[in-house]
Amino acid sequence: MQVVNTIAEVRAAVRAARSRGQRIGFVPTMGYLHEGHLSLVAAARAETDLVVVSLFVNPLQFGPNEDLARYPRDLERDQRLLEAGNCDLLFAPSVDEMYPRPMETEVNLPNLAAVLCGRSRPTHFRGVATVVCKLFQIVQPDVAFFGQKDAQQVAVVRRMVEDLSIPVEIRAVPTVREPDGLAKSSRNVYLTPAERADAPVLYRALQAGVQRIEAGERRPEAVREAMVQTVAERPSVRLDYAEVVDGTSLRPLAVVDGYVLLAIAAYLGRARLIDNVQLHVSADEVRRV
Ligand code: PAF
Fold it and tell me: Which residue's alpha carbon is at the smallest distance from atom 5 of ligand 1?
């Protein structure tokens, strides 16, 4: 695996791969890798010829009181995991390399960015869209891989790529879970043993919502209520939101039908965790997608 820190080095490596006729797969990350990230690398490995991973803790996507300074970092361990996962090129730029001066240009999707996580993290998706757009200009991948756990991020990136005609295909890769259902996340490291024991309630809440839909419930508010009541079983878990929305526009649904996203976010001590499930709901079937 080649490890580079500058934009010029990435461009040279990608140019060389393209001249060999190779397809470029890209996995953007903020490091502190877990099985969820490695499943993205494996998906990129299976579909493309040159697998590029970026590792950059992007300051633009953290609010003033968020965890930028204490976000977990372990470059050596990440490098070992990526070697083992057959990554070809690791791009690990400094903040100065990415932002040599304050960014004047921003990419903002005001509607998609304002809902769900955007209500408690109002600048987050602007930071994500801006850095992903910049990374796409640097790497110029054919295909980019994102975790389905960050469903709102996937919706934002898909829409940005369409709106700006960026020639990259976006793949959303299924969430990787612990045996008890907790979605893998770099932020799980913040959980105390007691919080870790409570954390699977997020996935149980989503499953409670799915069960209501499978039982024939089509009122979003009733499905939401099932999720809220499940979270209430663990008083230490402070719900941020539980929502039932359209999976593409992220807008509230009048009726549970079509491509449906059940999304949840909650605070457990210092950690804010998110999770979701996606369904295709029709008159005859309820299918997980
Ligand atoms: O999902 C993440 O880790 C980040 O939001 C991303 C896509 C790498 C952008 O910084």
Answer: 128
